[in-house]
Design goal:
Elements: E1 2-8, H1 11-26, E2 30-36, H2 42-51, E3 57-58, H3 68-86, E4 90-94, H4 98-109, E5 114-117, H5 132-142, E6 145-148, H6 151-159, E7 167-169, H7 173-179, H8 189-194, E8 198-202, H9 212-227, E9 231-236, H10 241-251, E10 257-260, H11 265-273, E11 277-280, H12 284-292, E12 296-298, H13 306-311, E13 314-316, H14 321-333, H15 335-341, H16 353-362
Helix pairs in contact: 1-2, 1-7, 1-16, 3-4, 4-5, 9-10, 9-14
The structure holds uridine-diphosphate-N-acetylglucosamine and uridine-5'-diphosphate.
Uridine-5'-diphosphate (UDP) binds next to α1, α11 and α12.
Length: 372
């Protein structure tokens, strides 16, 4: 029996790891232990409840206004005892959060093999996104198994000199999660409020966007909404107080936008699926919206998810107010422009990534995922 430990701590990791845990738990050859850092508390618990996963260990590290120092040092200190007790054969970490980085580093110090889920995403700009680009590159140095979602992410790893036999193209597990969430007959009071208007879906949280860039983003969004009475926006706001402050300053009193508390992933996917357009700096939402053919304006200077750019569904608009304003307005007013971005496609997976990862960990035969 192989002992696998899954370590994660934020909402997006949980959304992408929970379906994997459910799959791993079905496998006879694997014993699964779940350790959450709770880098996010409420937003993590929301996802754990949805997937009905009860962690074996909860490091409970989240603090109000936590710094990168706080997160990294608490995880390193607390995870050590868990690893010493459980002695896992492989520890799975996900993506590019500080939880993933600190957990991989703890494993490295104890010479425990690491499996990196969502490996090989890159911008090659260490400050963008910050600190995620560093985190994923650092995990990449440590990882024994690299579960790359796409052939592009595999190619990044190969170029960096990773051995081909450590890289497995699986698709992204978020597409697996979506198989459980999107429903034709879905309803919600917020969607009733939107009615026949065009639904604009908004999220924002990136560390490098806090402060001035976020002011620009929200000002542009407000201006466009106020000029377009046929649109209504829903914005489930991140719990970071630094985000909430800017949103309050820039968006309060705009009756065409509803700022609501973070919604369950089930709701989020269904809101996205019914959206006309999404404006976000999120990573996960860039992967989800293309499946629904919902165009995404990515309010960042770089993306590690070029597959969606190639497919035409994503467009990078940075954080400059004029650029966001002009592009957002163009997509509302120019039908052809909108149509050119609204093709449904699945560049990130086929919904079977978790099975592939479980097969690999069990030492079974594995067929890589190839897009298209
Ligand atoms: C973290 C990840 C980022 C990921 C994002 C997903 C790092 C460095 N950042 O950024 O990669 O894209 O999660 O959302 O790993 N808070 C709560 N309750 C919660 C969650 C957050 O109150 O459930 C508040 C706390 O005050 C916390 C702050 O938000 O201090 C920031 O959380 P943190 O995890 O440090 O940063 P994120 O921007 O969420
Ligand atoms: N999400 C959610 N509720 C919300 C907002 C987002 O469940 O109120 C989901 C969304 O569907 C996606 C993930 O959270 O799967 C993205 O998380 P986030 O934007 O916080 O992090 P990132 O992907 O940028 O790391």
């Amino acid at each position: 029996m192989k002992n696998i430990m899954c370590v994660f701590g934020t909402r997006p990791e949980a959304i992408k790891v929970c379906p994997l845990i459910l799959e791993l738990k079905k496998r006879e050859g694997l014993h699964v232990t779940v350790c959450v850092t709770a880098q996010h508390r409420q937003m993590l618990d929301q996802v754990l409840d949805t997937f009905q996963i009860v962690p074996d260990y909860d490091l409970n590290i989240m603090q109000e206004r936590q710094t990168l120092f706080d997160i990294t040092q608490s995880i390193l200190t607390l995870l050590r005892g868990v690893l010493e007790k459980e002695k896992p054969d492989v520890v799975l970490v996900h993506g590019d959060t500080s939880t993933a980085f600190a957990a991989a580093l703890a494993c490295f110090y104890m010479q425990i093999p690491v499996g990196h889920v969502e490996a090989g995403l890159r911008t090659y700009d260490i400050y963008s996104p910050f600190p995620e680009e560093f985190n994923r590159e650092a995990v990449g140095i440590i990882a024994r198994y690299n579960f790359a979602p796409t052939t592009r992410s595999r190619d990044n790893l190969l170029r960096e000199g990773k051995k081909a036999e450590t890289i497995f193209v699986t698709g992204n597990t978020v597409i697996d999660a979506m198989r459980h969430t999107v429903r034709e007959d879905y309803t919600h009071p917020e969607l009733d409020w939107v009615g026949d208007s065009k639904l604009i879906f908004i999220t924002a949280h990136r560390r490098e966007n806090l402060g001035e860039p976020m002011h620009h983003m929200f000002r542009a969004i407000r201006r466009v909404l106020e000029e377009h009475p046929d649109c209504k926006a829903i914005y489930p706001i991140h719990m970071n107080p630094a985000v909430r402050r800017v949103a309050e300053e820039e968006l309060a009193g705009c009756d065409r936008i509803h700022i609501i508390e973070p919604i369950e992933v089930f709701d989020c996917h269904n809101f996205e699926a019914r959206s006309y357009l999404c404006l976000t700096d999120s990573g996960g939402i860039q992967e989800e919206c293309p499946s629904y053919g919902v165009p995404v304006l990515v309010m960042r200077d770089t993306t590690e998810r070029p597959e969606g750019l190639d497919a035409g569904t994503l467009r990078l608009v940075g954080t400059d107010e004029a650029r966001i304003y002009n592009t957002f307005k163009l997509l509302l007013e120019d039908r052809e422009e909108y149509k050119s971005m609204s093709n449904a496609c699945n560049p990130y997976g086929d919904g079977h990534a978790c099975e592939r990862i479980a097969d690999i960990l069990e030492g079974k035969e594995f067929t890589p995922w190839i897009a298209g």
